[in-house]
Every structure is written in structure tokens, then in C-alpha cells.
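User: We ran a pulldown and think these components assemble together. Before we commit to crystallization trials, I'd like a predicted model of the whole complex to look at. Sequences follow.
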Amino acid sequence: MSAVWRAARAAVRRRRLQTTVIGIVVGLSSMLIVVGLALVGATFGPFDQAYTQQQGAHLVASFDGGKATGAALADSAHRSGVSAAAGPFGQATVEMTIAPDQPRMVMTVVGRDRPDTAVDKVHVWQGRWVAGPGEIVIDAEPTADPPSRLDTVTLGDGRTVKVVGFAYTVSHSAQAWVSSEEMRALRPTTQQMLYRFTAAATAAEISAGQAAVTAGMPAGALLGTQSYLTLRANAELSAGIFVPFLMIFGCFGLVVAVLIVANVISGAVVAGLRHIGVLKALGFTPNQVMAVYLTMVLLPTVAAAVLGTILGNVLAMTVLSSAFFESYGAGAFHVAPWVTITALLGVPVLVGLTALLSSVRARRLSAVEAISAGSAPRRGRGLLVQRWLGGTRLPRAVSLGVGLPLARPARSALTSAAVLLGVAGVTVAIGLSGSVTAYVDADTRADAVQVEVRPARGGPTLGDQADESMLRALPGAERVVARKELTMRWIGGPGPAEVRFYRGSDAGYEMLKGRWPTAAGEVAVSSRFLTQSGLALGGTFTLEGDGGRLPVRVVGEVLMGAAEPVLANWATLTRMAPGSRADAYEVKLAAGADDSAYVAAVTAGDPGLRARPTRVPGSVIAAIYSTITVLTLLLGAVAALGVFNTVVLNVRERRRDLGTLKSIGMTPRQVVLMMVTSMAALGLAGGLAGIPIGVVFQRYAMNAIAHAAQIVIPDHMLDLYSAPIVVLLVLAGAVIAAAGAFLPSRSAARLTIADALRTE
Amino acid sequence: MYGGRRPCTLCGMTEDKNVVRLQDVRKEYGDTTALDGVNLEIRAGEAVAVMGPSGCGKSTLLNMVAGLDRPTSGTVVVQGEDLGELNETRRALFRRHRIGMVFQFFNLLDDLPALDNVALAAQLVGTPARQARARALELLGELGVADRRNLYPATLSGGERQRVAVARALMNRPALLLADEPTGALDSRSGEQVMDLLLDLNQIGQTLLIVTHDQRLADRCASRVVELADGRVIRERALERTA
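Assistant: Here's a predicted model for the assembly, 1003 residues in total across the polymer chains.
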């Protein structure tokens, strides 16, 4: 065993606390780096990753079974440019009823005997795949709260088939699957083919692939296609909501980790100057001394980096799955290998470089200088400020604490920067949570609609007006608005328009511009509707229903998220479909009213009505909250650990001063106060600087989210930082710092004076 | 002046003439016995020098009297306070009010000028800064280093640093001044000055306990010498101070 190795091992054993601190910081930093890089990586390719994992189809093609023969379809799989294909599968459009009280639905059903074909490996996330006739698998996005039992569905011809599983295809190739034998019974007229192409990055390449597979087929054989580029564009809309804040937290995490690692290592080197001097005095060459020091630092670093990277992978998977669960399903993500490799190699290299840079100074010092580095009087720093502090009315323990960071300005700056980013993270988190909550509340009209009432199977027993009167008269009702939804043709528009007609007030929609429609022929629409249609307030378009055509004028822009319905009042409905009855009632309850009691009272009042509370938290929102919470806690913990490390180093360096102060009567409480104050001062400074940075990033994130989702977020949903919140955020910096400082301060207070003074 | 005659009004000195009483004090560090049944009494106004070879337990004895360390067994009573029964905070308060300490390596805070180093001891008690600085300046003047008040320890000579350290030790008018090798890190001229200073202090009534290797210091300042070996008191002798 070499002298260097022996000396390094002995140094590690002797510096257990320092080794532990290095280990914890490097471990947590590696975790944060893995999570951060994984998030940044996920930003650029969650859809592609999921698509690759499921071998998603670049082109889903539907062929007329009468014109495209099975042989021709099989042959299309071998055309130039096709890298993989699956099919042909029988495809039928089937009417079915999933639940007795649900309306009939028209679904695209495909006959497939296995989920894991060469293209479009369907992810069965609940139950199993079909094994034969009489069974069906329903396409549904994975959910954290899967259905507790599998039921049957009734097909249009009256037969029932058992639901044996729920599955998800990122290719959106079908809405349900049955066995090929079952499909034959449905007499399919359409055949589905799934293709992957060697080149599919652009629409032109997809078109070229499509041309290749359909070449030679009779005209009209191809009924329809779906390009994955279209799905990708839609998916990016959803992922885009996550991207901004994932980017922010990922980058914050990386910077904090780097700051803390630099702080720990440079501090460890400074604290070890004396040790270096002793080694030199014993005959170690400068390079051997550096080798000892690097080994001493790298031993815990490598171990912690490995452990941190493993834990970081686990955490990143959890966060990513949570964030993109709804879009791509559980298990759709893995952390890219480059992320793991970067953390495994990058962190130890970064630590090693920092240690190397720091120890260059020690290398240059003579043995005598190094040995005396800890005991000879040194020229202090920030002397004028410290002197001024000594003359203030502050308790001396506090004024000493406030002046302490000045002694090590670089270390204090690194620590303050870590706290700054921690506070900025908390600021962003609070702002984002508040903005998202405010937006979702406004979008779902959480304050305006607590119960929705719809006719049950069999229909209501009372008339429309009588039901509305009854609902209004029930205890707890504050406002009842009747609603009717119609799908109408939008003349000149890109497709049908879903129109909601309201009887009563504005139904709690937040008006962004203009006013609520009050007369026949007036409508209000969402920002996205205006953007996509090119219309502006005052613009007109024409709707056509069974009752004829009606030109309507846009009089208001309302806040709406995902859907783009057109909102109109009852007078317009009377023009379009006279005599219609409401198909839903939206009820606002009085403050403190019990929604379940109201729901029960509705059924008692009219057994033909079904009421349900509307407050169901969305999984995307839950994912956003959980992601924000995890990342904020992690950032806060790492920042606090940075402070912990700084105090440990300060205590180590100032053992003699602490012993002196205690010897002249400083009480343990005063010692804790002094050390905690020293960091709280940094925390306050970091907090003050972190808040504006956090606000800027919150604005950026919300604007980016709004841009991605094509929505407008009113200013009042962004300006959430009231004076009490700002005060709390400033205090958050002090709290992070004080929390990190408390334990090492307590250990400083317990320092045995005789031992401390003996270190000289 | 230094206030050596007035500690009773500040720190509640009892009528007991013995400022220090050690009874069968034993201190062990693992398998090592640093003090082995030490008995010692120091009366008010006395100057006692503890001498002996390295490792004999001198500094341990001083630490016991200062309340910096606890005995493994036996009792240490200083001004009527049984230090073994005080918790950490009470011992800090005890040191603050009743003990002044001077160290071989001065132990001044490098970030504070001489004046603030001295004033610190009073400020920890809660004395307002202006008042504390005024008294610190008075003490520095008495010790002949008032003109160095704004200098930082790194720029002071060894003797000046030790004078500042003595001023700090006297700041709260302690009943007992403890000095651990006070001339150990000084050149002979500075050492002489510190010896004179300690002698002066004792002559105006300040009780002193000095741990030293320096026979000249003991001869010059102490009225009694206690010799330790292997943690035991092997001899005590009264001295006629040399001029």
C-alpha cells in the first residue's frame, strides 16, 4: 500500500464529518443533476421517447377491404422505405354502450390478436389482452386511479362483450380492440395497416412513404391516413405546459449543485491546509500531497456519486412518469443513458477539478506556511463593517454573526447564491402553483359551478322549467343556470362547432374582453377560437343547425382552456332549435353548503335527474403540483445543505475563536445565535435577491405555458405576490439558511473549550 | 484602576477567603490520568504559580478552575460555586463574571481591532457598545497600549497582543485572573513587560493563578508555587518575590 493511499485513508477516517458532508452533498447534487438533466432531456423528446418505446406507427392507414386485397396489403409492407409494418387488421366502426347510463358511442374497433406487433406495441396497463371472441380491450389513457372492476360493453347489435383490459396506444390506432375472430363476426369492410418508415421526420417524407405503400393500388383503396406528425404536434401542446417549469427547475438544480460542490471542496481544502503542511514536513512531495488530498476528497465523492445517480434515476423516473403519465402512460419513460453517464463522470470530475484548483494554493505553500495557516494571526476581511457592527445596539452575538460572512466572502457568496436559487425556486413554485390554480379554477369555474345536474336514463320526471325551479329551491343552491349543448355546422369553418346555450346569467365564465352575450345572435368564444379562426371581437360567422342558419357576432372573449366551445344565450337557442329543453343544470352552492347533501336532494326532488359534484382534480394539475413540490423540496434541501456545509467549515476554521469566545463567557445559546445569525443574514440577502429572479422566471414560465397551450392568462393570475407572500419569501431564505445552520451551530455550542483552544 | 478590589460588588464574591478550593480532583482522558487527587486552595489576593514538566496536568488544572472542563471526580469550588454542578450556560455566566483568562497564544479575534477585542467581554454581558469601548480604552491606557487600539491583532507585536489579552481578561473585573503560559510566546523583553503587568495587578489585589514553565515568571509574580508531577501536587512553597 502506497504512502499516499495510506495517508488518504487515514485522512478520510479522521475527518468523518467532512467526509459525510462531502458524501451527502455530492450524493444529493448527483440526484439533482440526474433529475435536472432528465427533465431537460425530457423537454425535448417525451413524445419521441414514448413513440420509440412503443414502436409507434409513422402512418396509420385505413384501406377499403373490397379494393385493396390482403396480398396487396401484405406486399405494401415490403415496399422501399418501409422499415416495419403490422397488419392488415380488420377495422370496423361499432356503436357501443360502455355503461348503462351513458349514451351510445361510435368507436373504431380493430381486430388484433396481440398487442406487441412489430409496429404500435400497445401498452396494456390494466387487465390483459383479448384471448378470443367475446372479449374487448378499451383504449384509454393510463390513470393513477384505474377502474376498480372491468365490466361489459354492449355492441350495437345487442351482443355484450367482456372488457378484459385497458390499453393505450401512442399511435392512436384504435379506440378498442377485439380478437381477429370477433372482428370477423363484425364483418369489417376496412383493413388497417401500420407502417414505420426509414425516413419520417417531415411531412414530405411521410407523404413519400404513403405513396410508396399505396403504389399500384386501385383508386379509392386508401380511405384515410393518420400521420404521427399530427399526433406529435398535438402532444407537444400538452407537453409544452410542463416544459417551461421543468427547464427552470432543472437548470436551478444544476447551478445549485455546482455551487455547493465548489463550496464544499474548496472549503475542505482550506480547512486541510495544516494537514497538508504536516505531510510536506514529513517528506511528501507537493504532488504526493495533492494526490493524498484528491484521493481523500474523491473517495466519498465517487461512492456518493454512484449512489446519488441511482437514486436520481429513480426519482427522475417518478417525476417524469408523474408529469407525462396522462400523455404517454406509466413506464413510458427512462432516463437517457447520457444523463446517467454525465452524472457519474461529471460530478467526480467537477469535484476533482475544484479540489485540484483549491489545492494548487496549498501546493505552493511551504510546509511552515501551511502548518501555521490555521494558527497565525491573519488579516481579517470586511474590517470596517465589522467594526461598525461592534458599535451598533445589536446584541453582540448578533453583530458578530452578521459580520462573520465577511471573513470568507467567496464562501459566503457561494452560500448566498445557493440560498438565492433556493428562494428563487420557492418563488417560482409558489407563483406557478398559484397561477395554475387560479387558471384552472377559472377554467373549470370552480367558484361558479359546484354541482352539475343531468337527466338520468329514462329522462326527468319534471319539466325543464320545473326542474330548474326545483333545483333553485333546494337548500344550499345559490344560483342555477340551465345549459344546452348542440354540435352545429360552422359555415366556412374548419369543422363542427360545439355550442353551449345558457339560460340565466353568464354561468361564471371569466370575461377577458368584451361582454357576455345577452341577445339572440351574440356569442362569446375562447382566445384560441379567435386565434385559430382569425376573428376578432365584433366579427361574425354563421352557424347552421337543424333549425336553419344563423349569423352570430362575437361580443366577448372568455377564459377557456382545452375546449373551444361557442357560448351563446337561450334566445339564440330559441332561434336555432325552438322548444329545446336543457340537457344540464349548473349549480353554484352557497358558501358552506354540503354538495353531497345537495346531490341527494336533487335525486329526491326528481328521480330522473343525476347530480354530481364537479370538483374533481385533474391529473395533469396533480402532476404539476407534485412535480413542483418535489423539485422545490429538493432545491430547498440542497440549499440548506449548502448552508450546513458552510457552517461546518466555519466552525472548523473558527474553533479557536469559538473557544476564545466561550472562554470569555459566551453562552451556548449565544454561540448558536451567532452562527445561525451569520447564515440567516446570508439567507436574507439571498432571499431578497432571489425573489425578483423567481418572479421573472415565473412570468417566463407562465407566458411560455400560455403560448404552448394557446391560451391567455390574465394579469391578475400572474400578479400573485402580495406583500405578505413577499415577506414570507424573504423569510424563506432566512429559514432555509437557519435550518441548514442550526445543527452545526449546536455542535459549535457544545464544543469543549479546552479542546478548541488546544488546536492551536 | 483595574478593579481588582471590587469583584465582590460585581460578582457576588462570598465571605470565604478562599477564592479557589480543589478537593481530591481527578481527571481522566480515557486511560490517561491528567490529575490524580489534587487538593489546592487559593486565597483572595494571592498569586499562585503552578509549575511542572510538560504533561504533568498544569493546563488541565487551569481548565478545571476556569470551568472549561469538568473533573472526573472531586470538587472544584471557585468563589463558592461548585463548578461540577453548573450546566454549560451557568458555567459560561460564571466565567463571564468571575474569571479572566490570558492564554499563551493570546487568542484575540483577528477580525476585530484591539479596542473591540477588549470591549467584547463586556458587550457579551450586555454593556452598551459606547460604554464598553470607553472602559476598554481606559484599560488599554492603563496597560500602555491605548495608541494601538485601532490596530488589528495581526499588526501588533507579541507583547502588545498579550497586553490587549490581559485588558480583555480584566474587562469584567474578575475575581480571579488565570494565565496559561502568559510569557511562553513572547520575546524576553515583552515577557518582562507582561511579568511587570501581572505583578502590578496582584499588588493591587487581583488574585492570580499562573501556569508556567518559566521559573523567572514564578519568582517574579507568584507568592506561592505549586509543583505538579504526574497529575499530583508534589510540593508547595511560598516565595519571596524578586524585585
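The first strand of chain A starts at residue 59 and ends at 64. That may be worth checking against your pulldown data before setting up trials.

User: Thanks, that helps.
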